[in-house]
Amino acid sequence: MTDADKVPHDVRASLEQLLGAAATAATEGDDATARAALDTAETVATNKLPAGERRDRVRWGCTAALDALPNADLAAAYAIATAEAVAGSEPSS
Fold it and tell me: What b/e readout covers 23-45, taking b as 16+ CB neighbours within 10 angstroms?
């Protein structure tokens, strides 16, 4: 992983929370809440992550989850996979 792919702790926590909320909302059939959380997560990724592979993967995951709605299981799976990609990153020094 390059320095550009490291995720600051506060950004990682925000993204994990938003993506978890999106997955839960999608599973519960609350598409409006899932969309709002995914839109916000994509905005956070765009504005707070440095350009690089990690930012691209998070943004792609948010878009894929949005596109999957109203298929709750698929949208939740994309959101969870994206959260796991964020969680697997190392915090920046």
Answer: bbbbbeebeeebbebbebbbebb
